[in-house]
Design goal:
The complex is a heterodimer of chains A (114) and B (114).
Chain A (H helix, E strand, L loop, with lengths): L4 E3 L2 E4 L5 E6 L6 E7 L5 E8 L2 E4 L8 E4 L6 E5 L8 E8 L8 E2 L3 E5 L1
Parallel strand pairs in A: 2-11
Antiparallel strand pairs in A: 1-3, 3-8, 4-5, 4-9, 5-6, 7-8, 9-10, 9-11
Chain B lengths: L3 E3 L4 E4 L4 E7 L6 E7 L6 E7 L2 E5 L2 E6 L4 E6 L8 E8 L10 E2 L3 E6 L1
Parallel strand pairs in B: 2-11
Antiparallel strand pairs in B: 1-3, 3-8, 4-5, 4-9, 6-7, 7-8, 9-10, 9-11
The chains are: A mainly beta (114), B mainly beta (114).
Chain lengths: 114, 114
């Protein structure tokens, strides 16, 4: 069974540019989460989808971040325009409701804004 | 005050040692307590989870939760070089659905010397 897939694995962009991160969850997983780890800090929650609906977006830092999950399958996280402080590793995780609710993480996308 | 505190280490032990990793937390709403292991350039992988207070054992790993003290621990017996990784504690109010987002500690890097 394929795991959670994220791409790109690494992205380097200039300040002010736009970047789109993609996450393909495990097939059949209704829950999809985005997290971010800024250097030297803990992994922090960004938002949670249940199918195509946003269940909780309390962790989104500002309106430069836009997450979508059209059709309840893969998700994208767009940063526009990117700022230096957006640099970090962005993780996606997915889980099913029943019976096993363990969240499986992708390998992350390392974003560097220069 | 951070919701979850974890000594960032690093920690270096000889092979065969007993390792004790700990986290404290401040949010009384947390009911689910998890330990993740993360290898370099990989996503976090669930190692153990515990609901409410108590102990849970899985092979060489034992997780303990003391909700009265808001303190959780992970013990690794007979540590092996393959245990070398970053260990993150994480907590949530619910294991699925709303409020299932994870709040992480900073993680501690463990190195087991052959």
């Amino acid at each position: 069974e394929a795991g959670v897939t994220q791409f790109p694995s690494h992205s380097v962009i200039e300040k002010g540019q736009t970047v789109t991160l993609r996450c393909d969850p495990i097939s059949g997983h209704d829950n999809l989460y985005w997290y971010r780890r800024v250097m030297g800090k803990e992994i922090k929650f960004l938002l949670h989808f249940v199918k195509e609906s946003k269940q909780d977006e309390s962790g989104m830092p500002n309106n430069r971040f836009l997450a979508e999950r059209t059709g309840g399958t893969y998700s994208t996280l767009k940063v526009q325009p990117a700022e230096l402080e957006d640099s970090g590793v962005y993780f996606c995780a997915s889980s099913q409701e029943y019976p096993n609710t363990e969240a499986f993480f992708g390998q992350g996308t390392r974003l560097t804004v220069v | 005050q951070k919701e979850v505190e974890q000594d960032p280490g690093p920690l270096s032990v000889p092979e065969g040692a007993i390792v004790s990793l700990n986290c404290t937390y401040s949010n009384s709403a947390f009911q689910y307590f998890m330990w993740y292991r993360q290898y370099s350039r990989k996503g976090p992988e669930l190692l153990m989870y515990t609901y409410s207070s108590g102990n849970k054992e899985d092979g060489r790993f034992t997780a303990q939760v003391d909700k009265s003290s808001k303190y959780i621990s992970l013990f690794i017996r007979d540590s092996q070089p393959s245990d070398s990784a970053t260990y993150l504690c994480a907590m949530s109010s619910f294991y699925t659905g709303a409020n299932s987002k994870l709040t992480f500690g900073k993680g501690i890097t463990l190195s087991v010397r052959p």
